[in-house]
Amino acid sequence: MYRKRAGGWLKHLDFIVLDILCLQAAFLLAFAVCTGLSSPYANDAYQEIGIILLLACICVTLLSDAFSGVLKRGRYEEFAAMLEQACLIEAVIIICLFTLQKEISYSRFIIYLTGVLYVCIGYFVRCLWKAILSRRRSVVERHSLLVVTEQALAEQAVKDAMEQETGQFLVTGVAILDSDMRNQEILGVPVVAKVDSVAEAVCRSWVDEALVVLPKERPYPGKLIEQLAGMGMVVHFSVFRAEEAGEMHQSVGRFGDYTVLTTSISIATPVQQLAKRMLDIVGGAIGCLITGILFLFLAPAIFITSPGPIFFTQERVGRNGKRFRIYKFRSMYMDAEERKKELLKLNQHGDGLMFKMEADPRIIGCKILPDGRVKKGLGNFIRDWSLDEFPQFFNVLKGDMSLVGTRPPTLDEWERYEPHHRARLAVRPGITGLWQVSGRSKITDFEEVVRLDTKYIVDWSMALDLKILLKTVKVVIFRDGAM
User: Fold this and answer.
1) Per-residue DSSP letters for 445-475?
2) Nearest-CA neighbor of 470 among 482, 459, 457?
3) Closest alpha carbon to 4 in 274, 268, 273
4) How far apart, in whole angstroms, are the C-alpha atoms of residue 325 and residue 96?
5) How far is CA 291 from CA 296, 332, 394, 401, in A?
6) Are 143 and 233 in contact (CB under 8 A)?
């Protein structure tokens, strides 16, 4: 996962501050409604809750990048985003209060009512502030913009310039470099220059900034850009349109003495990466404790049923092709790997990129009866309840794996991968992931697995990780076949 510098949230600092104020207003109002008192901060118990709410709001906002694209969201999308934000904050404060276990007396209803009021107040304030910003942009003086492009791209380039998010530009002219279209208009904007008269057109009427949009196969117009910038203009050179980049994240930065365009399937700030690692450490420590308890019961059962090691270890391929040893409670007989070659023809994944079969005779205690029915054994119990996965929490603590990610392939599976399959390992592999909670046992098309894993990597956020963790608990408990 590529790292980017923190700071993108600064352009939405106004929304962040307003959101914090809305949450505090909701807390004050909920306290007043339930107690009739003026301020919860006069009470030590509620003073602590207020501080936790403040910190939870800041952390959730920054880690989930809650205001990304806020100005482009419609009313329904904004309400959905507001509801998600409130649920995450409520979850954080409930977990904090449960973990701290302070001997304090407080009303749970006030906390829940705070969440409801926060959604109502926050949604209204967000919509109102966006309306104010839109009105402000319509009355302030906008910068004049010259679009420099070619005939085939002209209409789309002008349209993009008119619809850009901030609304601070007024498109006053177009320069067409590959033909003479002067005295014509594109979407109501006059064509004012051809290739050899761009500078002249800029001199005739003042232009603040220029947007240069050219085909990818055309060489970088260094002389033109230098000429325009030398006249005091700010020049924007288009590298890709958003959809041309597909699902890739792109940013411009410095690499030594070079100015570079960086392209990556996923981007995370250092703060987000730190938060994910901290979650892994806490979850890994708790998981290792549970693993120790399970060992007391599973170890004798595994050894009696199938004498041999309690743990199964195997070399897997992790992030960016790094190899590591994965740990599991052994749920198969000792000769399972040797027998796998004999069973390849029964693999439900015919491409060999994964191996799975019903009534696998390698599983401890699993038998096919003469009448065709399957008799399950200890190994099936361990696998059905995902108990075999618990030793992987040690891998999480070591840093080989994460709580949430993509499943690490075996060496033979990795060798069969095509180039686009390798995108699965752009992040640390995980104990659980989007594929696992989307119906793992029902998905037999490996391309669908790759699609889900890639979607997780592209859409990654701390909020998504928390959703997957919660859904993992649900599907394991109810055993709906997803895990």
Assistant:
1) -HHHHHHHHHHHHHT--HHHHHHHHHHHHHH
2) 482
3) 268
4) 34
5) 9, 18, 9, 16
6) no
Question: CA–CA separation, 115 vs 121, rounded Å?
Answer: 10
Whole-angstrom distance, CA of residue 432 vs CA of residue 409 = 14
What are 284's strand-pairing partners? none
The rounded distance, in Å, linking the Cα atoms of 476 and 470 is: 10
Identity of the amino acid at 421: H
pLDDT at 105 over 70: no
Q: Which of 13, 30, 15, 24 is nearest to 53 (CA)?
A: 24
The radius of gyration computed from the CA coordinates of the chain, to the nearest angstrom, equals 29
Helix (H, G, I), strand (E, B) or coil at 223: helix
Which residues are paired to 254 by β-bridges? 259
What is the Cβ-side half-sphere exposure of residue 378, based on CA atoms within 13 angstroms?
Answer: 17
Nearest to 312 by CA among 383, 415, 377: 383
Band of pLDDT at residue 326, cut at 50, 70 and 90:
very high
Place of tokens 């809650």: 66
pLDDT in tens, 62-82: 777 777 777 778 888 889 889
- DSSP 3-state assignment of 210? strand
Task: Give me the DSSP letters along 364-403.
Answer: TT-EE-TTS-EE--HHHHHHHTTGGGTTHHHHHHHTS-EE
Q: Which is it for the CA torsion 182, 185, 189, 195, positive or negative?
A: negative
Residue 35's nearest CA partner among 111, 120, 107 is 107
Q: CA-CA distance, 161 to 168, in Å (whole number)?
A: 10
Q: Cα 201 vs. chain centroid, distance in angstroms?
A: 45
Q: With beta carbons less than 8 A apart as the criterion, state whether 324 and 315 touch.
A: yes
Distance separating alpha carbons of residues 128 and 235, to the nearest angstrom: 33
Are the beta carbons of 414 and 317 closer than 8 angstroms? yes
Tokens read off for 389: 């996965």
Alpha-carbon gap, residue 353 to 350, rounded angstroms: 8
pTM, rounded to two decimals: 0.65
The DSSP call for residue 410 is: B
| Structure tokens belonging to residue 384 | 């059905």
Q: Which of 404, 465, 460 is nearest to 4 (CA)?
A: 460
pLDDT band with cut points at 50, 70 and 90 for residue 292: very high
Question: Quick one: CA torsion of 161, 164, 169, 171, rounded to 10 degrees?
Answer: 20
Give Dmax (Cα) for the chain: 93
